[in-house]
Design brief:
Number of strands: 13
CATH architecture of the largest domain: 3-Layer(aba) Sandwich
Distance between the termini: 19 Å
Largest sheet: 7 strands, mixed
CATH superfamily of the largest domain: NAD(P)-binding Rossmann-like Domain
Order of helices and strands: EHEEEEHHEHEEHEHEHEHEHE
CATH topology of the largest domain: Rossmann fold
Structural class: alpha/beta
Number of domains: 2
CATH class of the largest domain: Alpha Beta
Radius of gyration: 20 Å
Strand content: 15-25%
Length: about 300
């Protein structure tokens, strides 16, 4: 393909690493049956690299800067699984010298989703945050951001054998196969949970309601059943809010704040992300299969080598 050129307000990034997310494989498989939104799509929204050209209205001093990229294939046809990608300038975020390309390529979809889930309803300092699925890409970042924000964090795992994988400095771990997970959660949250970050609303709605504080928020970014049943009356009497999170459609200001906070946290060394050895672009199908298989390590494509 011919090299894409940046339009007004855009930057062109020479991609080093492309991040693969479940959302990318779902779009590729047309999981909702919407069909192809463009005649040709270069997949993946996240990545890292170096700006090599800028469009009209963008500071030319940005050329040569290392950046991490988000939203490259959000309502757009040309993502990061290519040598070059073009994005609006604010979607290429300066990457501090202390932060690796690999970490930068992991921040986009999961990091911005996690940030929105934790902070959409205000600061969490002094609050209790429950992260369902704390070992997942979004869940692990949500736990770390909430802890950095001053919250007491409780993180759930599916099986008791996974408890040791949770960093005790970040979250109190609770296994969902515990005889009474609600009681185990309440042991760390005697006054209830103020914010719940939910990866499987259809599976966990009863537990979420059982441990919520009055006026709490359940921020859900995924569900197994697309028509989840909820315990309406317990949630109503507790005056709970259910916040649904579609990362492509977050307000612009929320994305920009998330990008700034994620970059600062990465610079401080406050984010730990398990990352597999990158695979070559020619093995992109294998990379998608790894993501669909549910690997806990982040999957990256190496574009430049």
């Amino acid at each position: 393909m011919a090299a894409p050129g940046p339009g007004p307000g855009d930057v062109r990034v020479r991609v080093a690493l492309s991040g693969v997310n479940p959302g990318d494989t779902k779009k590729r498989s047309d999981w909702l049956g919407f069909g192809m939104p463009f005649p040709r799509i270069v997949p993946h929204s996240d990545g890292s690299g170096v700006i090599d050209a800028v469009g009209e209205g963008v500071d030319r001093g940005r050329v040569g800067r290392r950046v991490w990229v988000y939203g490259a294939q959000s309502y757009r046809p040309f993502g990061t699984s290519a040598q070059l990608t073009v994005v609006p300038a604010d979607q290429a975020v300066d990457l501090p010298d202390e932060v690796s390309d690999a970490l930068g390529a992991c921040l986009g979809i999961p990091g911005i989703t996690a940030h929105r889930a934790v902070f959409a309803d205000g600061p969490v300092d002094g609050k209790v945050v429950l992260v369902q699925g704390v070992l997942g890409a979004v869940g692990s970042l949500a736990a770390q951001l909430a802890r950095r924000g001053g919250a007491t964090v409780i993180g759930t795992v599916r099986r008791s054998g996974d408890v040791d994988h949770v960093d005790p400095a970040v979250a109190h771990a609770v296994a969902l196969d515990d005889p009474d997970p609600a009681d185990a959660i309440r042991a760390h949250a005697p006054d209830g949970v103020h914010r719940t970050i939910e990866v499987a609303l259809s599976d966990n709605a009863d537990l979420d309601a059982a441990v919520a504080a009055f006026g709490g928020v359940i921020a859900a970014y995924a569900t197994r059943d697309e028509l989840p049943a909820i315990p309406f009356w317990p949630m109503l009497f507790a005056n709970l809010t259910i916040r649904l999170l579609g990362s492509d459609d977050f307000p612009l200001a929320a994305k920009q704040q998330a990008a700034a906070d994620l970059t600062a946290a990465a610079r401080e060394g406050a984010l730990a992300i398990p990352i597999a050895a990158p695979v070559l672009l020619g093995r992109i199908a294998e990379a998608h299969d790894r993501v669909d298989a549910g690997t806990r390590e982040r999957v990256l494509l190496s574009i430049t080598s």
